[in-house]
Design a protein that fits this description.
The structure is a single chain. By secondary structure, the protein is of the alpha+beta class. The chain is built from 4 helices and 7 strands. The mean pLDDT is about 85.
């Protein structure tokens, strides 16, 4: 397993990640690169199985409907947005597998979901996947 490294530029997320790591007694280092973001580094030997940039579909399939709904509700706070006057929200990712996992879990939790693939104009940037999730009733 590789070291876990994530760069975060949202103040609230820095606090959440810090509380999570400390609450789980996971040793970490913080670096502050010149780009203004905060870089969290956890050595590979301390990375729990559930910390990954790739969602664990098997784990989520074994979760309760309520747990799946909580997972989905958190996405908007981390990598998403809620359009004004909308009954749904977007989750954004550059990982096609994560987009598929989120859409699958949304359907199993009783929501509708659609994935829109957005190629980037800049050649060095990855394709972005926008997953729109909304209640079906």
């Amino acid at each position: 397993m590789e070291n876990f490294v994530d760069k975060i530029n949202k103040f609230a997320l820095k606090n959440i990640v810090t509380e999570l790591l400390e609450g789980l007694n996971i040793p970490y280092n913080i670096q502050r690169p010149s780009d203004g973001r905060t870089k969290f580094v956890v050595l590979a030997r301390y990375v729990p199985w559930f910390i990954s940039k790739e969602f664990n579909l098997s784990f989520l399939l074994g979760a309760s409907t309520e747990a799946r709904a909580v997972f989905l509700s958190e996405l908007v706070h981390w990598d998403g947005s809620r359009p004004t006057n909308s009954t749904g929200f977007y989750y954004y990712t550059t990982h096609a597998k994560n987009a598929s996992t989120v859409a699958t879990i949304a359907h199993l939790a009783g929501y509708s979901a659609s994935i829109i693939e957005k190629p980037r104009a800049e050649a060095e940037w990855s394709t972005r996947y926008n997953v729109f999730i909304r209640a079906t009733a």
